């Protein structure tokens, strides 16, 4: 897709030589070399079709330069005129972008992705098989809507991939930190509720449903098919095993691990996670035993 941005620009009226001057700084030295490779030919065909590892036989003339920012948009995408799509960003077929959406450089908006009004997408974000609500902020390098981690062993002992055919749905006023990954669903959509906030480097597995106003701190890992209520807070490095439910208004201390359903609101901690006062007693007892040298 990044190659697409360069080649589309080079086939526009400005010519490839001007393209290298205008967008080489955006992509850095490696892409500047790529542009200079093509700059020797000033008569690049407007109907050029390029084969590459990730784009086989794509007709890049189906994309046009967006007037507000310089990114590239497929002719079948529905983009509000107020949207900003910066140089190096690509909006794929049948995507829908609402008013005042801002797409940062290097972002890839996959086919049929829907983005609500006033949402800001940071540099190098990849969105596919998903919808994003209004007034969201998605920081640099985040990936939403990719395959979930699902496999099974067949009768011959081969490890096969389980189809991940559904989508991810992000609510309104959600903020997602840098380099976070949210997988799309296999038997139900992955859902992030309204006003939830997710820190950097968080993994949300397929089929996970998170309620509204939840807070997930850095390096949280949520396995597949977890269901969380509203106003849940997970401290840093909390792990949640697959197919468990966490009721609303639960707070989990950092480094905790949820191994079974939590059905009562309150504070929890430890591995496995237990009510916070019980965990504190466990820690105090362990220290006392070590201090006394009891074996």
Automatic annotation (TrEMBL):
The keyword Protease does not apply. The keyword Plastid does not apply. One of its GO terms (molecular function) is N-acyltransferase activity. Keywords: Acyltransferase, Lipid A biosynthesis, Lipid biosynthesis, Lipid metabolism, Transferase. It comes from the Eukaryota. One of its GO terms (biological process) is lipid A biosynthetic process. PROSITE patterns: HEXAPEP_TRANSFERASES, PROKAR_LIPOPROTEIN. GO terms for cellular component: membrane. This is Probable UDP-3-O-acylglucosamine N-acyltransferase 2, mitochondrial isoform X3. The lineage of its organism: Eukaryota, Viridiplantae, Streptophyta, Embryophyta, Tracheophyta.
């Amino acid at each position: 897709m990044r190659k697409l941005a360069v080649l589309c620009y080079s086939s526009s009226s400005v010519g490839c030589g001007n393209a290298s001057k205008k967008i080489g700084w955006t992509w850095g030295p490696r892409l500047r070399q790529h542009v200079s490779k093509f700059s020797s030919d000033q008569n690049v065909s407007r109907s050029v079709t390029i084969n590459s590892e990730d784009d086989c036989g794509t007709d890049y003339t189906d994309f046009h330069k967006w007037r507000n920012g310089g990114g590239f948009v497929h002719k079948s995408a529905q983009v509000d005129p107020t949207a900003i799509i910066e140089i190096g960003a690509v909006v794929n077929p049948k995507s829908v972008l609402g008013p005042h959406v801002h797409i940062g450089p290097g972002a890839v908006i996959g086919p049929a992705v829907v983005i609500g009004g006033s949402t800001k997408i940071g540099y190098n974000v990849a969105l596919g098989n998903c919808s994003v609500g209004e007034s969201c902020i998605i920081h640099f390098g985040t990936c939403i809507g990719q395959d979930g981690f699902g496999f099974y062993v067949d009768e011959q002992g081969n490890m096969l991939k389980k189809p991940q055919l559904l989508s991810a749905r992000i609510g309104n006023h959600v903020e997602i930190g840098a380099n976070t990954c949210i997988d799309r669903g296999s038997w139900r959509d992955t859902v992030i509720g309204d006003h939830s906030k997710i820190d950097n480097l968080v993994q949300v597995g397929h089929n996970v449903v998170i309620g509204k106003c939840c807070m997930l701190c850095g390096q949280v890992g949520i396995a597949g098919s977890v269901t969380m209520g509203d106003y849940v807070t997970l401290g840093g490095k909390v792990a949640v095993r697959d197919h468990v439910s966490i009721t609303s208004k639960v707070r989990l201390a950092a480094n905790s691990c949820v191994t079974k359903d939590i059905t009562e609101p309150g504070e929890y901690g430890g591995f496995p996670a237990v009510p916070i006062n019980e965990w504190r007693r466990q820690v105090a007892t362990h220290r006392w035993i070590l201090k006394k040298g009891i074996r």
